[in-house]
Each structure stands twice: as C-alpha cells, then as structure tokens.
Amino acid sequence: MKALAFLAALAFPLAAAAADGSAEAGAAVFRKCTACHNAEEPVNKVGPHLVGIVGRPAASLADYATYSEAMKAAAAGGLVWDEATLAAYLAGPKKMIPKTRMAFSGLKSEADIAAVIAYLKAVAR
Ligand code: HEC
Q1: Whose CA is nearest to atom 34 of ligand 1?
Q2: Which amino acid residue places its CA nearest to atom 28 of ligand 1?
Q3: Is the beta carbon of 70 within 6 A of some atom in ligand 1?
C-alpha cells in the first residue's frame, strides 16, 4: 500500500507538468496564425477569433460572417474543437475538411501542434 501511494504521488505532478509545459513554445508557433487569427481578443480577422477555441463548437461565432459551407456542415454534424479535433485540423486543414476556407497547409510537427493547443488554452484563461 505504501508503495502505491508513493507511485501515485510521483505520477500526478509529472502529468500536470507535461500538460502545461509547452504554452510558451506555442506562442512562437502561433505567429504562423496571427495574419488571420487573434487569440487574445475577440476580434475577427480573415479568420474567426480563437478566444476560448478549446471546447468551442465549430463555426459558432455569430459575428463572423464568412465561415465556409464546409465548416458549417461540419458544425451541423456536431464538430466541437477539443484537443483531438484541433490536432487533426491543424495537421492538415484540407485533409480534415476538404473545402475549408482556411488557406493554411498545416503544421508538420506534432510537438508544434501540441504546443499551439497548449498556448490557445493558456491565453483563454
Ligand atoms: C491565411 C489565413 C489563415 C491562417 C494562416 C490560419 N487560419 Fe485558421 N482559419 C482561417 C479561416 C478563413 C477560417 C474559417 C474556415 C472555414 O470557415 O472553413 C479558419 C478557421 C480556423 C479554426 C476554426 C474556427 C471556428 O470558429 O470554427 C481554427 C481552430 C483555426 N482556424 C486555427 C488556426 C491556427 C491555430 C492557425 C495557425 C497554426 C491557423 N488557423 C492559421 C484562416 C487562417
């Protein structure tokens, strides 16, 4: 029993550190997005603002008028931006949603994708 409690005490802080660690790196990755997206203020550019994007249903901003039909269809099908769906979209926007208006080829590195998602969560706090 003592050994188990020790293992549990060891495991939890490590998991928390891994989940938080990359937001700073993600701020640098996000520079690839800032031409089209604001994540700090709810202000739309070419793309919809990304404040609170983790957990937000797709195509859900009432003041962003130019979502593609493809994105609206994905939203009607129940698409919500959680970490898994964001990772898939950011790896290959047109692989996930072939007719999306987002003119971005995708992030090649899984570490960059994890970092930018950590950043988007951190700025939403
Ligand atoms: C060239 C401009 C451009 C770049 C660069 C770009 N995006 Fe986008 N993004 C868009 C547009 C336009 C849309 C709307 C897509 C649609 O309606 O099909 C969009 C949509 C999104 C959505 C869905 C938002 C919603 O409300 O459903 C997310 C998430 C997103 N982008 C994240 C990113 C991230 C993160 C990056 C950088 C790694 C990035 N984008 C780079 C233009 C861009």
Answers
A1: 33
A2: 50
A3: yes
- State the pTM of this model: 0.87
- Which residue in 121, 123, 124, 102 sits closest to 32, CA to CA? 102
Give the dihedral of Cα atoms 64, 117, 33, 75; nearest 10 deg.
Answer: -30
> What are the boundaries of each domain within the chain?
22-123
Q: What is the pLDDT along the chain (125 residues), one digit of tens a residue?
A: 555 555 555 554 444 444 444 899 999 999 999 999 999 999 999 999 999 999 999 999 999 999 999 999 999 999 999 999 999 999 999 999 999 999 999 999 999 999 999 999 999 87
Report the top-level CATH class of 22-123.
mainly alpha
CA gap 43, 64 in Å, rounded: 9
The maximal CA–CA distance of the chain, rounded, in angstroms, is 59
How do beta strands 56-57 and 80-81 pair?
Answer: antiparallel
**Among 85, 80, 90, which Cα is nearest to 111's?**
90
Question: Residue type for 13, please?
Answer: P
